[in-house]
């Protein structure tokens, strides 16, 4: 993983190249104050002051230069100078005016590379100086957590099965003095029957398991963080077409987010009793795979008619949510790459966010806007509860007709949340189909920083 701590350094007056970040509205006034050689260079590049304009500006010495970027993003945007973090040559830089602030995160994440399977580039680090050194540690933590999500999601399923998710949870627990508990294979059949049913068709070395990590003072408020850990999803006997399976290595993206959020909680030593739960399975096809029409028992005691083996994430989360609720947390947060319906409604950038608590939802949405990690709330519409009715069981796992798919999936999960416990559910894509500055194509954390901002505010 990239050592982000080397990319952000306190400004002690050391030698550095200058970056001029100019808003389009201030471009003409800025240019009028520049020396003739700068104006000549800008004219030669045919810059107009439009957002995205950039140029290397000459200085007095032959080997000296500075950088101009015309940018219309606010100073609160983490992505304001991310494109420069990607493109500039190795060296040390500082802003000509003001402090980088939130943009330190984008600068660092722009230098993220996933090179586990090929040789990385040989470009050295681009170091950004800041006069606000107190912000470096938090920025490095956020960059590291984001990179963890990216790394886990980008890793192919051959190297990221249920046992590998367990290994990462074990590393996290050991790093912070937490306790790891794993319930695996046939041991799940009695206590976590839905997790067992979904994962039982996988090969023995990819057996299903419930991974739990507990950390913190038991006297502090208890919170639970959960993540859907479907290491690969064939769709089960309702098998996906080839195109639908192409990105299913990322179906453990919820687990990746949960691990990353838990790492932030423990690294900052928030005053909480943390319970991390990851139901880790592979939804495979074999002679003992669970079938359409099967009625599954759940840990809570509810029976579920399985109407679609490709709606398996909500099944494994149902048992895990039940376990989380048994310890009376005051807050539950879960992440899951749960529904295609959420992506159709909101696209790849906006995690569909559901909550049974208006105050919590409001905090999350405001935090997302403030820090550039936007969310969009969708309804837990009581009127759609009837879509989960079954003729032979307490409920179905997948409503007929395809209407309100993200909401009905969230309503299914709500059946396993204790009353009076605040709960937020993120139906996140965990993937960027196209690159943006600081955000390469591939796995990504969407909704992680917003939730972290709320937890830090509540329990920091």
TrEMBL record:
**Family annotation (PROSITE patterns):** CYTOSOL_AP (PS00631)
Tell whether Manganese is among the UniProt keywords: yes
Which keywords, in A-to-Z order, does the entry hold? Answer: Aminopeptidase, Hydrolase, Manganese, Protease
What GO CC terms are in its UniProt record? Answer: cytoplasm
Query: Please, which domain of life does this record's source organism belong to?
Result: Bacteria
Q: Which GO terms describe its biological process?
A: proteolysis
Ranges for domain Cytosol aminopeptidase:
308-315
A single MF term (Gene Ontology):
manganese ion binding
PANTHER family linked to this entry: LEUCINE AMINOPEPTIDASE-RELATED (PTHR11963), PEPTIDASE B (PTHR11963:SF20)
Family the UniProt entry places it in: Belongs to the peptidase M17 family.
Question: What name does UniProt use for this protein?
Answer: Leucyl aminopeptidase family protein
Annotated organism of origin: Sphingomonas aliaeris
């Amino acid at each position: 993983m990239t050592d982000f701590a080397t990319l952000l350094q306190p400004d002690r007056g050391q030698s550095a190249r200058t970056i001029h970040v100019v808003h389009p509205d201030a471009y003409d006034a800025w240019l009028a104050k520049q020396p003739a050689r700068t104006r000549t260079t800008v004219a030669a590049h045919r810059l107009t002051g439009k957002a995205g304009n950039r140029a290397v500006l000459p200085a007095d010495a032959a080997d000296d230069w500075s950088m101009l970027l015309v940018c219309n993003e606010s100073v609160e945007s983490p992505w304001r100078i991310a494109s420069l973090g990607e493109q500039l040559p190795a060296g040390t830089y500082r802003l000509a005016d003001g402090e980088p602030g939130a943009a330190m995160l984008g600068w660092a994440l722009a230098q993220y590379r996933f090179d586990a399977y090929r040789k990385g580039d040989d470009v050295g680090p681009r170091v950004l100086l800041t006069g606000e050194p107190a912000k470096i540690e938090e920025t490095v933590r956020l960059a590291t957590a984001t990179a963890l999500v990216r790394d886990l999601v980008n890793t192919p399923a051959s190297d990221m099965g249920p046992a590998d998710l367990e290994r990462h949870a074990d590393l996290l627990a050991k790093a912070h003095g937490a306790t790891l508990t794993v319930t695996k294979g046939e041991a799940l059949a009695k206590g976590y029957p839905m997790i067992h049913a979904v994962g039982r068709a996988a090969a023995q070395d990819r057996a299903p398991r419930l991974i739990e990590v507990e950390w913190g003072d038991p006297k502090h408020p208890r919170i639970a963080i959960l993540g859907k850990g479907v290491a690969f999803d064939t769709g089960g006997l309702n098998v996906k077409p080839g195109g639908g399976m192409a990105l299913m290595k990322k179906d453990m993206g919820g687990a990746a987010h949960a691990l990353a959020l838990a790492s932030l909680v423990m690294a900052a030593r928030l005053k909480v009793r943390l319970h991390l739960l990851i139901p880790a399975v592979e939804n495979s096809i074999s002679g003992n795979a669970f079938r359409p029409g099967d009625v599954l028992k759940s840990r809570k005691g509810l029976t579920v008619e399985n109407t679609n083996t490709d709606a398996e994430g909500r099944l494994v989360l149902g048992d895990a949510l039940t376990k989380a609720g048994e310890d009376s947390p005051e807050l539950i947060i879960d992440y899951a790459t749960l529904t295609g319906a959420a992506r159709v409604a909101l696209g790849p950038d906006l995690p569909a966010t559901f909550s049974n608590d208006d105050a919590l939802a409001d905090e999350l949405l405001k935090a997302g806007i403030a820090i550039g990690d936007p969310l969009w709330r969708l309804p837990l519409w009581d009127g759609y509860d009837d879509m989960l009715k079954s003729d032979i069981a307490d409920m179905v796992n997948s409503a007929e007709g395809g209407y309100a798919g993200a909401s009905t999936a969230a309503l299914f999960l709500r059946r396993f949340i204790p009353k009076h416990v605040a709960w937020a559910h993120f139906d996140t894509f965990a993937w960027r189909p196209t690159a943006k500055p600081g955000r390469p194509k591939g796995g990504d954390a969407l909704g992680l920083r917003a939730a972290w901002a709320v937890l830090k505010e509540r329990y920091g």
